[in-house]
Amino acid sequence: MRRGKLLKTAGMILAAAMMLTACGSSQTGSSEQTTKATDTASTIEKNLAGLQGAESIALTQSDNYTDEYKTEVESSIYTYKTTDTQDSISYIFISDIHLGKPDDNYSTEEVDAAVYRELYALVDVANNTDIDFVCVGGDIQDGTSGDPDSKQIALNYLNKVSEILENCNKPVLILKGNHDDNSFSAQAQPDWLYDPAYIINNQEWYDATMSHFSQYATDYNNGYYYYDVPGKDIRVVCLNMSDSDDTVVDGKRNEIGMYFYGYKDAQIDWLLNSAMSRQDCQYVFLSHDAFDYPQGYGTDSNRDTLESILNAATTHTAFSTDKDFSDWTGEVQLYHCGHLHQERSILSDEIGGIPLINTDIGRAVNYFSVPQEWRDMQYEHLDGRELNTISEALFDIVISKSDQVNFIRFGNGDDWTLNK
């Protein structure tokens, strides 16, 4: 992973201000230092206001943010506005917020409240920048409660997230994760497993998520769709790696999300013949998962097929006798996913050398260390996260250009650059 720090100017200003304030409480000259700290902290807003064409920022939760949270929002906005975004595709990506997941150190309600704070911050960053879209990368709810009403609980979580994101003035794209159909909760009782009364089907998923943002879901089918960015030759392809079959036979579903990871033949056909049919444009691919974690994938998952399609498209070679990308004039920019609760950004040889990006878990959690085999594949996981601090949050503002991808990290972690 080739990383190079971006300068989050406003964040450094705040850090200096906080240090001055802390010093001022215990050292000689505290009044003078406190005044300097106050003046320095206000530099963020002055810099934002001084940007060409900038307007005063409006925050949905201004009265509820702590100073630390407010400053992170403002510093992220400032960093974006002072980064060269010409001829780029830019978006916010958050994944694996796992609402409702039990925690050893905090109540479920406390962790859920932290996720909602993070989502409101995401909306504020989006609303005060000119990013192209927002993507929620799946596993919105954990679906492991085992409660008899777990399906309705899960739907309530999905609808709550959609309601928060309706405050966003940018396009919102929601991906389906392997937890999102509530099948992990259904395993609590043998009789619940495969019972449609406990499993969120494709229509219910759509009603709770992308029906709120249907104008951005072109050619929607069972959780997969695409979005064409207005004014730019860019198509965003949203895949569904939890493409399980809703068919019910003798009162039981054929498949459920926890036992089927992958892409049905219909989704592959759609990808080849509809989603990738546009010429002379850049493509961004978004999915909950990528290609490294075999658990849950069967021989009929088409995950290797997807990898081969991306490789053929990127290298402009034949995928099959029926699909040859040699004369295809599209260009693949990147593939972005979550799922593994780890982060990585590499140029993947398996998909033609394009950026393959994993974003770490959006929910504050410190429950595992990365095994060496994953470190060997350049994965990292960021620990040290605490509720009621800015480290509880984690999402990326991504700016992709022809020669590099810049990442502005909100919350836990650093900004970085991946050179293409």
Polypeptide structure, described:
It is built from 11 helices and 15 strands. Residues 1-7 and 9-41 have low confidence and may be disordered. With 420 residues, it is of the alpha/beta class. It has helices at 9-24, 30-41, 43-50, 67-81, 108-127, 150-165, 183-186, 202-208, 265-275, 303-315, 372-375, and strands spanning 89-94, 133-136, 172-174, 218-221, 224-228, 234-238, 248-249, 252-253, 282-286, 331-337, 344-348, 354-358, 394-400, 404-411, 416-419. Strand 2 (133-136), helix 6 (150-165) and strand 3 (172-174) form a beta-alpha-beta unit. Helix content is 30%, strand content 17%. Helix 1 packs antiparallel against helix 2 (30-41) and helix 3 (43-50) packs parallel to helix 4 (67-81). It has a 7-stranded mixed beta sheet, covered by helices on one side. Strands 3-2-1-13-14-15 form a 6-stranded mixed beta sheet, covered by helices on one side. 48% of the residues are buried.
In short:
The chain has 420 residues and is α/β, with parallel strands linked by helices. Helix content is 30%, strand content 17%. A hairpin with a 5-residue loop joins strand 5 and strand 6 (234-238).
Spell out the helices and strands N to C. Answer: HHHHEHEHEHHEEEEEHEHEEEHEEE
What is the end-to-end distance?
Answer: 11 Å
Look at the structure and give the mean pLDDT. Answer: 87
- Indicate the low-confidence ranges by residue numbers: 1-7, 9-41
**Largest sheet: spatial strand order:** 4-5-6-9-10-12-11
Q: Which term fits the overall shape? A: globular
Largest sheet: 7 strands, mixed
Portion of residues in beta strands equals 15-25%
Fraction of residues in helix = 25-40%
